[in-house]
Amino acid sequence: MSKTDHENLEDRFDTGEDVLDHFETDVIVTTRRLKELSPILNLSALAREAGINIQTLQAKIRRDTPLSGEETARIVAALKRFHLATVA
């Protein structure tokens, strides 16, 4: 018996694989999005996990300064380690 798409996605998600491609959407990590998520997301813990200076991240969020490509990649990787993602 073959697995359904839903089960395949669960298996991919559980093993840490990217499942967003199935939904044809982009991972959205911007300072504006992080600010929106700040009431429910510990940005200090996220910055530590991503290896980003928390004061730098907070300043970028406060000023709505874009994240660098490296910062974005580190934040996305940190979120993925905990099976989290933010999408549009």
Could you describe the 3D structure shown?
There is one protein chain. The protein is an all-alpha fold. The chain has one domain. 55% of the residues lie in helices and 0% in strands. It has helices at residues 5-14, 31-37, 43-50, 54-63, 69-81. The radius of gyration is 15 Å and the shape is elongated. The relative contact order is 0.18.
Please describe the topology of this protein.
Blueprint: H1 5-14, H2 31-37, H3 43-50, H4 54-63, H5 69-81
Helix pairs in contact: 2-4, 3-5
Compose a concise summary of this entry.
By secondary structure, this protein is mainly alpha-helical. It contains 5 helices and no strands.
Q: List unreliable stretches of 5+ residues.
A: none
Q: Structural class, from secondary structure content?
A: mainly alpha
- Proportion of helical residues: 40-55%
> Sheet with the most strands?
none
What is the beta-strand fraction?
A: under 5%
- Strand tally is 0
How far apart are the first and last residues' alpha carbons, in Å?
A: 35 Å
What is the gyration radius calculated from CA atoms? 15 Å
Number of domains: 1
Mean pLDDT metric:
82
Anisotropy-based shape: elongated
Can you write the helix and strand succession as a string?
Answer: HHHHH
Tally of helical runs: 5
